[in-house]
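Reviewers of the previous submission asked for a worked example of the structure-prediction workflow described in the proposal, so we include one complete record here. The input consisted solely of the amino acid sequence. No template or homolog information was supplied to the procedure at any stage.
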Amino acid sequence: MNKAELIEAISISADLPKATAGRTLDAITSTISSALQKGDDVTLVGFGTFTVKARAAREGRNPQTGAAIKIAAAKLPSFRAGKTLKDAVN
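From that input alone, the workflow returned the following structure tokens.
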């Protein structure tokens, strides 16, 4: 499902115009992104939790030359599914 299909599904499910559903989806994703940038977790009970995880610096290899390279530390967004979502999928 892509963004347009998700907006259409939200529009039908919530009985909203597509434009309103699109703005709502954009607001939700923007708010979650902003919270993660601040270092906050976002928990939607039953659905899951969005968090930021730190990945340590490490050494890697260039696949073409085999030379060792340093890979910098990074912060990555992460999602952990809640029990209700896990049960729905299984």
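The mean pLDDT is 95. We consider this example representative of the routine output the project will generate in years two and three.
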